[in-house]
Amino acid sequence: MAVAVEVRDQILAAPPQPLDAPPGEQPLDGARPLGRAPQWVEHLCTRHGPPRDTRRQLAANGFYLGQLRHFPKRTRRATIARMAKLCAALLAVAGALALVTPAHAAFPGRNGKIAFASGRDGQYQIYLMDRDGSGQHNLSNSPHLDFSPTWSPDGKWLAFERIQRVEHGFEGTDVWVMNAKGRKQRQVTFDGRSGRPAWSPDGNRIAFSSHVGFDSELFVIDADGSNRTQLTANEPSQFSEAGDTAPAWAPDGSRIAWFAQRFRGFTQLGYGIYTMNPDGTDEQLLVAGATHVDWAPDSARLLVDCGILCTVNRDGSNLQPVGLGPAIRDGGGGVWSPDGTMVALGAHRQSEPFDAEVFVARADGSEVTNLTQHPAIDGGPTWQPR
Question: Is the Cα dihedral 83, 84, 89, 93 positive or negative?
Fold first, then answer.
């Protein structure tokens, strides 16, 4: 975290060094990422990713994200490298690493504890706290990077994403599980390319995303790591780590929702929240232009991120803002409480843009409360059913 803040401060303090955009190029409104930037950089730095003030900061620092193929190769590589460095700093500061994956489902029950990811120990770990914010403690307590926690339907297990520490840094991303006390940690996937877990309503399977080539696809696997099955198969993109990610399984078991970015060659066909049957059939676009998704306990509604936190019916109708107010900026989607009366989300106050926290609010957006109140990056909450 300290390194990310230092990088951010150095870049933002540097004088702008804009590059000349190609003829007719509009640095902000024509933005589309090209080149081999990592998936999270591409998502953050596209027109639909960061808020406008962040896009202005990117443009001020010379990050014209449009048709970079018009630039000479050396300039293009330098631009992508600078883009990646600034986006990495903004990502860490905004908490996007922890917040980008709150997509799962709120299984019905009483409201239990809240698990979340935090960088307060110098690297991301899974933390646990009571629903009023008390009793915050490190649950995963590992030397690795742990984030994207999600509760099993019975509230006894957490699936999460782990990047393992190796001799010279960190390597690979896989799905792991542990019990509610942080014990019995067990690896579920072993390909080093998998994450974004979501439990099935019966607790026997886990949906997740994994890279196939440069694209991300959705899979299901038994909770013991057996019977891995691919659900989606998209046309490979020629330049972008596009595809399907962050699945969320409806509590009634009828559908899986997820975030998709679709490309054909160098053309982005669109992005949004889709749903399908659990066997991968009957794909349907639910909300175009939205990103993160979470099912309500009754499976009748979903929380989606449309730049602000919104609710939508399962058929895509009645898209409505939650109404958190202008003081709170959503940092990557929210999750329902098990009883359906509240939401939790990783976000930051407009007055404190570099301090991401976990907030809870009534389902109508009222009574917003900061639970974590810590200077480190906190986010990616998931609410335990009891």
Answer: positive
In the numeric block, the tokens 């994450």 are attached to: 195
Q: Quick one: residue 350, left, alpha or beta (phi over 0 = left, psi -120 to 50 = alpha)?
A: alpha
Determine which of 147-161, 178-192, 207-221 has the lowest per-residue pLDDT on average: 207-221
Residue 76 near residue 35, CB atoms below 8 Å: yes
The domain boundary, picked from 94, 127, 157, lies at 94
pLDDT in tens, 43-101: 333 333 334 444 344 343 333 344 344 445 555 555 555 555 444 444 444 444 333 34
- pTM for the whole thing? 0.75
164, 165, 171 from 168: Cα distances, Å:
11, 8, 9
d(CA 119, CA 147): 10
Q: Are residues 48 and 106 in the same domain?
A: no
Which runs of E-coded beta strand occur in 80-168? 111-118, 125-129, 137-138, 145-151, 157-166
